[in-house]
Write a structure and sequence with these properties.
126 residues; 4-stranded antiparallel β-sheet; mainly beta
């Protein structure tokens, strides 16, 4: 069953911007850390950004720091990823994820997240 639904992906030129959104399709998941990951063709799924359960803590991969911003709205139970200054190497399928197993953890690893979306494609042209 699908528990998270991402939206906002698409095709954009280099230096452009996109905003991804992710919300649960069933049970509420507002009380947990959330993250964004991505997988480019031929690569493993990699961490992009994470946000703690109340939004006070955020962590980023070095490759996206100062370009991407993760945020959340717990009233809407939605997490966002604002992506600016996009580069062709940002092209990937982007996945949102929730760590429903540990309310205090803000992880960077795939194994620390147990609820996943199906992904949304982001393509950045040169």
């Amino acid at each position: 069953q699908v528990e998270l639904v991402e939206s906002g992906g698409g095709l954009v030129q280099a230096d452009g911007s996109l905003r991804l959104s992710c919300a649960p399709s069933g049970r509420p998941l507002y009380g947990f850390s959330k993250g964004w990951f991505r997988r480019a063709p031929g690569n493993e799924r990699e961490f992009v950004a994470g946000i703690g359960r109340n939004g006070a803590r955020t962590v980023y991969a070095d490759s996206v720091k100062d370009r991407f911003t993760i945020s959340r709205d717990n009233v809407k139970d939605t997490v966002y990823l604002q992506m600016n200054s996009l580069k062709p190497e940002d092209t990937a399928v982007y996945y949102c994820a929730v760590d429903s197993q540990n309310s205090y953890r803000l992880g960077r690893n795939v194994w620390e997240y147990d609820v996943w979306g199906q992904g949304t494609q982001v393509t950045v042209s040169p």
